[in-house]
Amino acid sequence: MPSMPQNRLAQEKSPYLLQHANNPVDWYAWGEEAFQKARSENKPIFLSIGYSTCHWCHVMEKESFTNPSIADLLNQNFVSIKVDREERPDIDHIYMQAVMAMSGSGGWPMSVFLTPDLKPFYGGTYFPPEDRWGRPGFTTLLNAIHQKWQTEREAIDKAGDELTRAIQQGIERRMDKTNQPIDAKITLAFAEQMLNQFDFEFGGFGEAPKFPRSHTIAMLLRVWHKHPDPQWWRLIELTLDRMAEGGIHDQLGGGFHRYSTDREWHVPHFEKMLYDQALIAKVYLEAYQASGQKKYADVARSILDDVLANLTDAGGGFYSAEDADSPIDFEHPHEKKEGAFYVWSENEILKHLGEEKGRLFSYVYGIKPNGNASADPHGAFLNRNILTLKHQPADAAKQFNLPIEIVRRQLEDSRIKLLEVRRQRPRPHLDDKILTDWNGLMISTFASAHQALGEEKYQRSARKAADFILEKMKNKQGRLMHRYRDGDVQITGFLDDYAFFTLGLIDLYESTFDARYLKEVKFLAHELVRLFWDQLSGGFFLTANDSEKLIARTKEVYDGAIPSGNSVAAFVLLKAGRLLNDASLEARGRETIEAFTAELKHFPGGYPYILMALDFLLGPTKEIVIAGKADSPETKQMIQTVRSLFMPNCAVLFHPENGESKEQIEKLSPFIAKQTMQDHKTTAYVCENYVCKEPIHDAARLTLLLQSSNQPGDV
């Protein structure tokens, strides 16, 4: 069978662009070649932005970009450019603002029409191929824009100028220096806003679709920690419990899907994103530290082990995502359905588990003969079941008159059996590019998991990933790069790369106490300021001062599915400053928060991660130094004492007894030079603003001291 002809996207590395390499559309990647063609032929640009695990991107490709007649329209009348939003967030941010200004909403695939000088004049998201659902089809749209380009060019140029100017002015307005003082009351205002949005039946915030909103829960943990009102814990507990029980949580393999299409967390959008695994696991780890409840540690492990099994490169980096859609079977590789890899018929459950175990498993996980999807408008899950924890093992023990130990053992045996059966199915598409920013989040979580759970495999994974980034994703000038795939490193790093990866290295230092990582923290934190700081208005730009010049230079602080670069940068600078005894970094962290105080006051619910930075700034923030021999049992016990508690506003340093590492850490953090072992015993120093209490040699006394100044709310 002859191979299909390929367009120039076949030369790219982005999995998303490669998905379109066989389209009849004459696609270009973003770059001067496409811009020059548009200018020389006087054609508008059709800019299509998406990502490889985007369901509606797949739909639009199948319906429109593989359609020869639509391809002819594009090829004759437009210059078509395809962009992976995960590779080029700078392009995506700018043109998403344009689409939202024109249509009032945004999303992917994003479809934007530009003049040859890259100014947007019309845009939207998904368009069906023909007129449908009361909206114009893509064919109608292409013909209309071509006609207007021929007859109303002046009006189009004017519209592009006005929209570009509006985008630029909007960014400039947000950058106006407000000089508003930091207000400690914002954190409680945030909690009150979340309380008003809370779903007291199913947990989470608002109606469907419902997103995990991990950093919202993380900030609520900090509110509860300082203001021990049981209502704050109720918001945290109900949300984490219902999420863990729902279909959004992969009950067999671990990991979390993107979001729930319904209130009950039952029917998910099945893609798995690396950043979700990092952020969700982190908040379950913190809930475990705060409450001591093993169930939260178990959920975190399920996520982390899924990442190790399915999203980890042999070199140590972490892959970006797995698709929601997958083939229905190996005989029909191109016939894909959402969630096909994850869902089950009742007959399949009984066939693979047998009648007795099958009935028990079906009772616990809500299996029904005709399927159990509570929301299925397109009939995608007819006669199929999404596993949700409908009954606890104790309920099943009563229902089936079995000892609970037998129930638990049978359920675990069944889970392992079905997981093995599932492994024989065709897997969803894997986006195997490695992004520095998302890897930074995952490194942070694996390092934190080692601290909270004490499992060495998580530290090894964090260390291996960090070393991969440091060895493979820095250029000769020491600049972080954004994307690695198949041996190819491209795209100079963005703010998020520097902020998120530095966060990962901070947590990795506190996991390993390897001064090499703290040295990288120091270098990257100062580079972050040098490359991205806005000298006029404060805060950080998404792109570096020597990056490609686009029609606008954006600055973001809103914490969406991923926290903003400014939010993480603020926290990173504050904590790095505290670890390194570097007042200049702490000052920049404070100034970052001050640059956005007006926005925080206006709508605190939109900025939970930068509020975590504010919480760190407001303190009290502790510096804890453990001085001793690295391998001694007493030292390990002291370190474990510190790690057993939920202390989010804490910077932990280890001061070795002697050797090269002692010299390194004293040079990096001069403060600890005086915090040494006393009487040849492991010694702990608990300090606030570098003023230390009397040295402690006993882990029990250290526990009492930390607990007395670290009172959590009542669980």
How do you describe this structure in short?
The chain is of the alpha+beta class and 715 residues long.
Write structural notes for this entry.
This protein has 715 residues and is of the alpha+beta class. Among the domains are: 8-174, Glutaredoxin (3-Layer(aba) Sandwich); 202-431, no CATH class; 620-715, Glutaredoxin (3-Layer(aba) Sandwich), CATH 3.40.30.10. It is built from 27 helices and 19 strands. It starts with 14 loop residues before the first helix and ends in a 7-residue tail after the last helix. The mean pLDDT is 94.
For the biggest sheet, the summary is: 5 strands, mixed
Helical residues, percent: 40-55%
Mean pLDDT: 94
| Shape verdict | globular
Secondary-structure-derived class: alpha+beta
How many E strands? 19
**Quaternary structure annotation:** single chain
Write the layout of secondary structure elements.
Elements: H1 15-18, E1 27-29, H2 32-41, E2 45-50, H3 55-65, H4 68-77, E3 79-84, H5 89-103, E4 110-114, E5 120-124, H6 138-151, H7 153-174, H8 186-197, H9 214-226, H10 230-245, E6 259-260, E7 268-269, E8 272-273, H11 274-291, H12 294-310, E9 321-322, E10 325-327, E11 336-338, H13 346-353, H14 355-365, H15 393-400, H16 404-423, E12 430-431, E13 434-435, H17 436-453, H18 456-472, E14 481-485, E15 488-492, H19 495-512, H20 515-532, H21 565-580, H22 583-595, H23 597-602, H24 608-618, E16 622-628, H25 633-643, E17 650-656, H26 660-668, E18 683-688, E19 691-692, H27 699-708
Parallel strand pairs: 1-3, 2-3, 16-17
Antiparallel strand pairs: 2-4, 4-5, 6-7, 8-9, 9-12, 10-11, 13-14, 14-15, 16-18, 18-19
Helix pairs in contact: 4-6, 8-9, 9-10, 9-11, 9-24, 11-12, 11-17, 13-14, 14-16, 15-16, 17-18, 17-19, 18-19, 19-20, 19-21, 20-21, 20-26, 21-22, 21-24, 25-27
